[in-house]
Amino acid sequence: MARYEFxxxxxxxxxxxxxxxxxxxxxxANCRQSLIGFDRFCAEQGIxxxxxxxxxxxxWLEQRGxxxxxxxxxxxxxxxxxxxxxxxxxxxxxxxxxIKYKGTDFQPHIYTDTExxxxxxxxxxxxxxxxxxxxIQYPVLFRILYCCGTRINGNSWNKEKRH
Length: 163
Description:
- 58% of the residues lie in helices and 2% in strands.
- The chain has 7 helices and 2 strands.
- It has a two-stranded parallel sheet.
- The N and C termini lie close together (9 Å).
């Protein structure tokens, strides 16, 4: 998978910020990943000058339809620190406000014995005419996922496949 290249008017400053954070001992990869969405937003908004207005901030602060409170909080918090960085460097940017952290009310679904049995019957019964190995590989893969409690985040999977 190709590494995402920053494209917005803030691309160079984002890279400088990530480098500065890495030099200071922070996880640069996490910092970089957090700002990819901000970079895409700025590019999609057609921001041509290194200025981030209250108009842009109000659009950026909106919680997306499929975005959890925790993800929303993390997205805004990461960009807020970057905008503070830009402000200190003299850029005309509106530093987004803090948003209230809301804990998640997510409750995992624990499979019943019947659901577990049906899950493995479906996996074991899968057959593909395109790739015969799938009928061997998928039961192993899904048992690993099930037994280890691993979850696949559909949003992240789809984003990575698109870009």
